[in-house]
Design goal:
α2 (20-31) packs parallel to α4 and α3 (40-49) runs parallel beside α8 (143-168). The termini are far apart. This protein has one domain (2-201). It has 9 helices and no strands. The protein is mainly α. The radius of gyration is 17 Å and the shape is globular.
Length: 202
């Protein structure tokens, strides 16, 4: 936990640098494939620092995140298993240090049934997005669908942050910190439930 806290503080420190926008792009890219700290931390700090640029920061974060998601997809597609079907040393490193084999197998079961909604849910909620981008490549899910789901989910998340700060300023930060995870999960459940209900009625 101390390592994660130090990483968190290090990420936050970039908000005071003239390279903050570049750092946001790099962080968003890295978080979608391997880095543990979400880009929201830096995005919120930058938006609060310069409210007028909130939507610009959200766009930078979105582009970096989607490109990082494609990198994660490529990682799963090309570097996760040997031709004989065994996990590579890279895969074993992730299992030992980033997420467990059990969680990875749980994701596979979800992809088998709900590919688009799995990517969307991981992109919008606090779930570890990198786990799902890598798994998407390993399971060879449809790339256009993967990109669309990533753009929609990550775009909703980042532009929601930016919009709230643009509208309400710094005081909204405590609300985001306290309630966003709960609201994100509730929104996703309601959205998926609505589509399921429409499908049943039709």
């Amino acid at each position: 936990m101390n390592i994660v806290k130090r990483l968190y503080d290090w990420v936050l420190s970039w908000s005071e640098s003239r390279w903050g926008t570049l750092a946001l792009f790099v962080l968003a890219f890295a978080e979608s494939s391997f880095f543990p700290v979400p880009p929201d931390v830096l995005l919120i700090a930058l938006c609060i620092g310069t409210t007028a640029k909130s939507f610009r920061y959200a766009a930078v974060c979105l582009v970096g995140s989607v490109l990082g998601a494609l990198a994660g997809y490529a990682l799963g597609f090309f570097a996760w298993q040997t031709p004989s079907g065994e996990f590579t040393a890279l895969a074993n490193f992730f299992f030992n240090h980033v997420f467990s084999l059990e969680k990875f197998n749980d994701v596979k079961a979800l992809y088998d049934q709900y590919d688009f909604w799995v990517v969307f849910t991981a992109g919008f909620t606090p779930l570890p997005y990198k786990l799902f981008t890598i798994a998407g490549g390993l399971f060879h899910i449809n790339i256009p669908m993967f990109i669309v789901a990533s753009i929609i989910s990550r775009g909703l998340r980042f532009f929601l942050f930016a919009g709230l700060i643009w509208k309400f300023g710094a005081p909204i930060k405590s609300f985001i910190d306290k309630y966003f995870n709960i609201l994100a999960i509730a929104f996703t459940v309601l959205l998926i439930g609505s589509f399921w209900l429409v499908g049943k009625l039709l």
